[in-house]
Amino acid sequence: MSGTVDVSVAGFYSAIEKSAGLLDVTASREAVWPILTAFEDALPHAVIAFRVATNARHEGDFDARFTLPKEIDPYEVAVSKGLMAKTDHPIGSLLADLQQLCPIDSYGIDFGVTSGFKKIWVYFPAGEHETLERLTGLASMPRSLAQNLEFFTRHGLADKVDVIGIDYRSRTMNAYLRAPAECYERESVLTMHRELGLPSPSEQMFAFCEKAFGIYTTHNWDSPEIERISYGVKTENPMAYFARLGTKIEHFVQSVPYGVNDPKMVYAAVTSTGEEYYKLQSYYRWRSVSRLNAAYIAARDQENA
What we know:
Largest sheet: 10 strands, antiparallel, barrel
Order of helices and strands: HHEEHHEEHHHEEHHEEHEEH
Radius of gyration: 18 Å
Number of helices: 11
Helix content: 25-40%
Distance between the termini: 30 Å
């Protein structure tokens, strides 16, 4: 079904309204329409996904995201179209620095349907991983990436970075990492959380991590600490992993009309305050081979090799 959806600006916006409505979220045309029109030419070829989170910070919003070809500079478009303001903060230089350092396959953007433009995703070419040693050489990178290099190396996470996510709204950066299988085992998960000073996961989350295909860490520019570590799982039945996701999200999972038979991505994390939460990503238009699904595809190909 997701291969035949309407990817015009009007069609995409209508799908956003309907999907957000399942969560009692009212999409803002003023926030969303300028984003869709700014990247209108890329929509016919994009992989498009919707995402909802269970934590209190994301209450009342609903995210959409789509891919862009490498020929489009999403930061330049976003600034020139007034989707966000140019900044002197190091985050404003990070994408340009990555473009100078790394080969790039494609990009993605993420926006809230009430809050507007949020993130840019940088996808490295399949099989051409970046290393943290190279990335930490960039002056615009958060210092916590370099200051925790020993942690990443010790757990086998330092040599295969698939994706960088730049969140301009929260001023954080995510590094999506290929991880050895032992990183998803209970003792390793517990050890990594303890080393980072994060609360121990619940039994539900330990079971979730056993099925994970990738890890990402979250960093900000104000602290030398790793802010969060998250785990991703691919599934066609996200409800199988949880006793409950919350009434509204359960309703969304059971009712969203797009990508019903397509894989879903679920991400789990524990905050520094001990709040355990999940992010569910459902596809408006799924394509089996895309860099939006970079970590899953890499893990799948490794399994099939």
